[in-house]
From TrEMBL:
Organism of this sequence: Antricoccus suffuscus
This protein's UniProt keywords: Oxidoreductase
GO molecular function, one term: oxidoreductase activity
All residue ranges annotated as the GFO/IDH/MocA-like oxidoreductase domain in the record: 133-247
Protein name (record): Putative dehydrogenase
Matching Gene3D superfamilies: Dihydrodipicolinate Reductase, domain 2, NAD(P)-binding Rossmann-like Domain
SUPFAM superfamilies from the UniProt entry: Glyceraldehyde-3-phosphate dehydrogenase-like, C-terminal domain (SSF55347), NAD(P)-binding Rossmann-fold domains (SSF51735)
Length: 328
């Protein structure tokens, strides 16, 4: 692909408002359209971000011939239907985390994308942060030996409101799909996929998960201890433990600007790696460059990892008595 990759935005909400300004750092990309179920909301978003075309439906956005790839930023249960129609129309996809509301939904998108050989990726921006890339490189070089454990936590003090998306079961509410995806994906990235997950926690009056402690177990003895919450703030710290040291990822670990390397018997090494813009730029570059190169998946955020994380999240939810569904 020699010309610029043309992007469409599905879902003009809070996260899309944060992501769109980082397109200024993606030289080979241009936003050509936004789509919403409300023409008024689409028009407002287009005006705020100088986007030339505003569609009053997702079907209209998907059918737009001036769009190559769609960034799906709607609530989780809506991802599947939009992705399904986008893939049928030959559009590539960047789908916000959590990828879908269910494992079956995630598997369907992956199978459709692979069958059609169309680029598709989950928008897990953490993996592309320069500070996380630096941690990954240090581990590959043996700086902390073999990675054996991970700790991570992420929590916010969100006042209970049954009308809020985060507490609405129909919109995929709960701590797991919004915050758990970060801690589980982080652990899976550095330890691989565990053989089991054990969850304990509490529910909101609407029935969604309000907080949870997660233990990931591996047959060879590795482990991850993770915590998430919507009922109280947590620092957002993460640690990667190896046989010869550890790496601290200071708050908030899912978009850090620095890490601290602790080699056994040595003084801590502070390593700073600033992102471009807010930090969403790096995942946008991954998709844009991948499409221009003719790739269909990201090596950094492969679809198999997305499926593994989705399975763990839904398993944990079900242990807590929470069962998610895709939107019709």
């Amino acid at each position: 692909m020699e010309r610029k990759v043309r992007w469409g935005i599905a879902g003009p909400g809070r996260i899309a408002d944060l992501v769109v300004p980082d397109f200024q750092y993606v030289e080979s990309a241009v936003i050509t359209a936004v789509g919403s179920r409300s023409q008024e909301r689409a028009d407002g978003f287009a005006a705020r971000h100088a986007i030339p075309v505003a569609h009053g439906s997702y079907d209209s956005l998907v059918a737009d011939p001036e769009v190559d790839v769609i960034y799906v930023a709607t609530p989780h249960p809506q991802h599947l239907a939009i992705a399904r129609s986008a893939l049928d129309a030959g559009k590539a996809l960047l789908i916000e985390k959590t990828f879908t509301a269910t494992v079956a939904g995630a598997r369907e998108i992956v199978e459709r994308a692979r069958a059609a050989r169309i680029f598709c990726m989950e928008a897990m921006w953490t993996r592309f942060q320069p500070a996380i890339v630096a941690a990954r490189d240090l581990i590959a070089d043996g700086a902390i030996g073999e990675v054996r454990a991970v700790q991570a936590e992420l929590g916010v003090d969100r006042p209970y409101d049954p009308a809020d998306r985060l507490f609405d079961p129909a919109q995929g509410g709960g701590a797991m799909l919004d915050l758990g995806v970060y801690v589980v994906s982080f652990a899976q990235h550095f330890l691989g996929t565990p053989e089991k997950i054990v969850a304990t926690g509490s529910l909101a009056p609407t029935g969604v998960d309000l907080e949870a402690g997660l233990l990931l177990g591996y047959d060879d003895g590795k482990s991850a201890a993770l915590q998430i919450s919507l009922r109280h703030s947590l620092p957002g710290y993460a640690r990667i433990f190896g046989t010869k040291g550890w790496i601290d990822v200071p708050p908030r670990f899912h978009h850090p600007k620095a890490i601290v390397l602790h080699r056994s018997g040595a003084e801590p090494e502070h390593i700073t790696r600033e992102p471009l813009g807010v930090g969403y730029s790096h995942e946008l570059i991954e998709v844009t460059d991948g499409m221009r190169a003719g790739r269909t998946e990201s090596a950094m955020m492969p679809l198999d990892d997305t499926l593994a994380v989705q399975t763990l999240l839904n398993d944990a939810c079900e242990q807590l008595g929470v069962h998610h569904n895709e939107a019709p």
